């Protein structure tokens, strides 16, 4: 269920039977020729498709995350860690106060992952809560299929190029871009990152056949569904 398509009375009725809710986490940042909203699109979509048969509501995706190294690319928006943590804690406090007790964060942006160690402290203070943080693209079965499909799978490369992350009328480059080592960027300024990456793809092919992408997506949805069912 999509929370944006429910009214408050429907949510209240749901809470009489269940206390699970899913929160997709995304980012607005450069993805080479793909949408700036790629991480948000994928996190929300995989959450909605996973939860549809379970009847578990899905919050609107949080579209901003922590992505400071891409700030030299216009359109990228980055939150400070303290801002991001405060936002998520306020979100949780709102939902907890209404009766939600089991939370799944479906994360679509690697830069958000470090927040979990701090955010988990919020749950430690609430002894009647359970929570899981799920990086959908690198969960075990999904990542295994990605590696079997093409081991050069990096930011803004083919692995994020789905029909729903492409920009209409924008052609993808042919061929394969030489891959960088992510550690090259650890101490780089945003300007240095842009100089190093150019278009923003970390390396590899820009796209693969839609049949391969749909196969990966099906595994990701099923794996996410099992996470939500088990929380």
From TrEMBL:
Coiled-coil ranges (or none): none
Family: Belongs to the creatininase superfamily.
Name of the protein in question: Creatininase family protein
An example Gene Ontology biological process: riboflavin biosynthetic process
Cofactor(s) named in the record: Zn(2+)
Species of provenance: Gluconacetobacter liquefaciens (Acetobacter liquefaciens)
Top-level taxonomy: Bacteria, Pseudomonadati, Pseudomonadota, Alphaproteobacteria, Acetobacterales
UniProt cross-references to Gene3D superfamilies, sorted A to Z: Creatininase
Keywords in alphabetical order: Hydrolase, Metal-binding, Zinc
One GO molecular-function entry: hydrolase activity, acting on carbon-nitrogen (but not peptide) bonds, in linear amides
């Amino acid at each position: 269920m999509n929370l944006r398509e429910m009214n408050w009375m429907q949510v209240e009725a749901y809470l009489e039977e269940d206390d699970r809710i899913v929160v997709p986490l995304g980012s607005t940042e450069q993805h080479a020729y793909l949408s700036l909203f790629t991480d948000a699109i994928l996190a929300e979509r995989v959450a909605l498709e996973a939860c549809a048969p379970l009847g578990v509501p899905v919050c609107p995706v949080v579209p901003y995350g922590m992505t400071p190294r891409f700030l030299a690319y216009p359109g990228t928006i980055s939150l400070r860690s303290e801002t991001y943590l405060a936002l998520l804690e306020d979100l949780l406090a709102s939902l907890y106060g209404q009766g939600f007790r089991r939370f799944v964060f479906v994360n679509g942006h690697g830069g958000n992952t470090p927040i979990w160690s701090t955010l988990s402290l919020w749950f430690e203070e609430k002894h009647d809560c359970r929570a899981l943080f799920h990086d959908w693209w690198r969960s075990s079965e999904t990542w295994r299929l990605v590696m079997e499909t093409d081991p050069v799978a990096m930011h803004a490369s083919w692995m994020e190029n789905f029909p729903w992350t492409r920009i209409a009328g924008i052609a993808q480059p042919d061929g394969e871009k030489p891959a960088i080592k992510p550690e090259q960027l650890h101490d780089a300024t945003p300007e240095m990152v842009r100089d190093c990456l150019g278009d923003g793809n970390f390396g590899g092919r820009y796209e693969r056949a839609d049949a391969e992408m749909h196969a990966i997506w099906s595994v990701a949805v099923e794996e996410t569904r099992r996470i939500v069912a088990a929380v």
